[in-house]
Amino acid sequence: MTLSFQPNADLSCADGLQSVTLRQPGGGSPVFLAAALRRQTAWKEAETSGGRVVAGDVDWHLPVAALATQPALGALLQDAGGANYRVLRVELATLGTRWVCHCRSLEITGELDRLITLERATWTKDASGVATAAWNVTRNSIAARIQPQTESVNVEQDRRLARASHRVYLAESVAIDQHDRVICGADIYVVLKIEQAERIDALPCLLVEQVSGALGFASVSGAEETP
Predict the structure, then answer these.
(1) Of the four, 73, 97, 175, 226, which is 20 to 30 A from 12 by CA?
(2) What pTM did the predictor assign?
(3) With contact defined as beta carbons under 8 Å apart, do 122 and 134 qualify?
(4) How many other β-carbons are positioned within 10 Å of the β-carbon of residue 46?
(5) Helix (H) or strand (E) holding 167
């Protein structure tokens, strides 16, 4: 009789076990696991981006005996190569001896030379009472995908201003507020809205606007954060 290999039942006999580090959401000490099994990763496009923003769905099998608590939704698994996997769903298998973590790896491919810098404004008033901004770098060298959205041309105070909105997909979660701007090379983008900040199955995204023909960038009213 031929028996097929079932990883849920035969993990102790499996080849290709890997070491991983588990980081639970909310902080705490990371947990090192010496023997975890990763199944095949299924890749797909995560956002409409010409294949630049991709998601890899994969199951990780973790021994219950090596963990004090169940892996939480949103926990982060990092393999020995430094790849990160976010836990989206957890099941208890093999008579309660193994956690099966359904995970997603989110990556930006192809245009990894698009490294952005985040700057934050500190607003003061000059002697005439005019608000001016001093910009300070809060983060740099963040891998991102800048996706064009809409373009328009308006006339304001006898000047033609070209406005272009974009979505900026970030390869990692960062602390951002409505007083930030995005720098990519010589291009400057004002942050209008923060999207997908609370989602564990998608990359954080910024809705930004680039203005050409203006002398500077003022604070954008009505900026908001949305989950």
Answers:
(1) 73
(2) 0.66
(3) yes
(4) 21
(5) strand 159-170
pLDDT per residue, tens digit, the chain (227 aa), is 454 545 444 455 555 799 999 999 888 899 999 999 999 889 888 777 777 788 889 999 999 999 989 999 999 999 988 888 999 999 998 888 899 999 999 877 765 457 899 999 888 888 888 888 899 999 988 888 898 888 777 666 666 677 888 999 988 888 888 788 999 988 999 999 888 877 888 888 999 998 775 444 443 333 443 33
d(CA 60, CA 131): 53
Domains of the chain, with CATH numbers? 7-108 (2.40.10), 115-225 (2.40.10)
Give the number of other Cβ atoms within 10 Å of residue 209's Cβ.
19
Encoded amino acid at 54, one letter: V
Q: Which two tokens stand for residue 179?
A: 């007083």
Please report which residue ranges of the chain form alpha helices under DSSP H.
7-10
C-alpha closest to that of 60 among 113, 100, 89: 100
* Token pair listed for 30: 């990371």
